[in-house]
Write a structure and sequence with these properties.
Elements (H helix, E strand, L loop, with lengths): L1 H18 L6 H4 L22 H14 L8 H18 L16 H18 L4 H14 L7 E3 L9 E2 L2 E4 L2 E3 L3 H6 L10 E4 L2 H5 L7 E5 L5 E2 L2 E2 L16 E7 L4 E7 L2 E4 L2 H4 L2 E6 L3 E6 L6 H13 L6 E5 L8 H9 L6 E6 L5 E5 L11 E5 L6 H12 L3 E4 L10 E5 L5 E5 L2 E3 L15 E2 L4 H6 L3 H11 L1
Parallel strand pairs: 13-14, 14-17, 17-18, 18-22
Antiparallel strand pairs: 1-20, 2-3, 3-11, 4-5, 6-9, 7-8, 9-10, 12-13, 15-16, 15-21, 19-20
């Protein structure tokens, strides 16, 4: 069966290569604006201003290629884009009488023509805002998909990436409610809000400790009636011009309550935190491997780490720590699962009409053949959830910790727009091995072991302790 499946997959790839036209060079992308979108080719070029033609290209690209583009009501894209445009006019005190949403009929081409006519009429009256209006309009159109793997990547005026040459940017702390969770799925956050890790920077200089409870952020409560508020987002600033953040803190061990103002900035990360894969031996016979992301060769690095720990001794189990793993390359998640099971379905990637591609294990990967415990949390997302759901559904291990993030709509395909910015979104949606929806739901653990403020303050890891206990049974 495996050989037949491999041959079939190889034939499918050959047919796809023969039938797919090559993507146009980057220099041709601008000429294609409004008609096609293609995969980026070659090194990135500097982005040029966003225009209504680029917005049109993105609109057509979504309708032609997005997972549900064929059945999507395009009026929702245009209406959301127009809302963002009028709100930006209002924020700048420059409202325009002609900024009235045109009547839309459901005819995609006619609706775009009507939208474009009004858009041009409005922006012609505020030429100094033209670039900003284009950006917020396109951002809103992409956001209206409500897809956690849909993004428009562009120059956002100096936005900091996660790291600069090994440095981090921000307040220098992590809390039990993370940034992506606040942005995409705040309903899963649970009080209290507390510091889980002090990474450096302003938080370290101010003497914050793991376990410190954050009672307010800039004067606002992080939770109201048990629900997370937008105030939490201030803990994770994204721009170099971000304002200082005022926190009211409580330290349970001493009862101390105090305020501190933290200024966002660059800080040097701990070298260990930059390692994608870390490993060590626990109790002389259990391999512990932490994997922070699914980067190139990361699965093989995990397996090599287990092999090294196995040299000269008999291991009785593996603890794979995927907490804080935000995902990455889908093929790496398949290779990792394949070290613990062969000839199994790891996931399905499906179109809106229910036609699915099957993701099988890579049976060229050597089996580890050891009991497996996987540590998960609300920061385990995307490819991390691919692994978690496969481990649970296929019965190849147990999950310990908390439910995963529920951020796995599907692998994103990138498309180059005419101004050298990139639009990305899934062309298929992900289902687990049992065809269950994981996106927005997450994968529940077999053993629910949350971290508490007291645990964080004492340096205890209850999930790891539970995993070790289970391996000893």
């Amino acid at each position: 069966m495996t050989a037949l499946r491999t041959a079939t997959a190889g034939l499918a790839l050959l047919l796809a290569a023969a039938c797919t036209a090559p993507a146009p060079p980057r220099s041709q992308a601008s000429a294609a604006a409004g008609t096609v979108c293609a995969a980026p080719q070659g090194p990135p070029e500097a982005a040029t201003p966003t225009t209504i033609d680029v917005i049109e290209q993105a609109y057509l690209c979504i309708l032609g290629n997005y997972y549900s583009g064929a059945t999507l009501d395009a009026r929702s894209l245009l209406a959301t884009g127009f809302v963002a445009l009028t709100q930006e006019l209002n924020r700048n005190g420059r409202d325009v009488p002609e900024a009235t949403m045109p009547a839309l009929t459901g005819d995609r081409k006619a609706d775009w023509t009507a939208f474009e006519a009004v858009y041009r009429k409005v922006t012609d009256q505020v030429p100094d805002l033209r670039d900003k209006l284009a950006v917020v309009t396109l951002e809103a159109i992409v956001a209206s998909l409500g897809d956690n793997h849909a993004r428009w990547t562009h120059d956002a005026g100096g936005r900091h990436p996660d790291s600069y040459d090994g440095d981090g940017y921000g307040l220098g702390l992590q809390a039990n409610v993370n940034g992506p969770q606040v942005d995409g799925n705040p309903g899963v956050a649970l009080p209290p809000l507390f510091v889980t890790t002090v990474q450096g920077g302003a938080a370290q200089a101010a003497g914050l400790h793991p376990g410190d409870i954050i009672e307010s952020i800039n004067g606002s409560a992080p939770f109201i009636d048990g629900k997370a508020t937008p105030a939490i987002a201030a803990l994770y600033p994204r721009y170099p011009q971000a304002s200082p953040v005022r926190l009211l803190l409580q330290r349970q061990s001493t009862g101390r309550r105090w305020s501190v103002t933290l200024k966002p900035g660059l800080f040097q990360r701990d070298l260990a935190a930059l390692q994608v894969v870390q490993s060590k031996l626990l109790d002389d016979d259990i391999a512990y491997v932490r994997m922070r992301g699914f980067t190139p060769d990361s699965a093989d690095r995990v397996l090599k780490a287990i092999s090294r720990l196995r040299t000269g001794r008999t291991l009785t189990g593996v603890v794979l720590d995927l907490r804080g793993n935000g995902g990455g390359i889908p093929t790496e998640s398949i290779r990792l699962v394949s070290a613990f099971a062969h000839d199994k379905v790891t996931a399905y990637q499906c179109t809106v009409d229910g036609k699915c591609e099957t993701s099988w294990t890579d049976d060229t990967v050597e089996l580890v053949d050891l009991p497996l415990m996987v540590l998960t949390d609300r920061s385990c997302a995307s490819a991390c959830e691919h692994v978690s759901s496969a481990v649970k559904d296929l019965g190849i291990g147990q999950l310990v910790g908390t439910r995963t993030a529920g951020v796995i709509s599907g692998p994103a395909q990138s498309y180059l727009l005419g101004n050298n910015t990139t639009l990305g979104f899934p062309t298929r949606h992900h289902l687990g091995p049992k065809r269950e929806v994981i996106d927005r739901i997450g994968v529940p653990p077999d053993h629910h072991v949350p971290l508490t403020p007291k645990d964080a303050a004492a340096g205890r890891d209850p999930a790891l302790a539970k995993a070790l206990t289970l391996l000893r049974k």
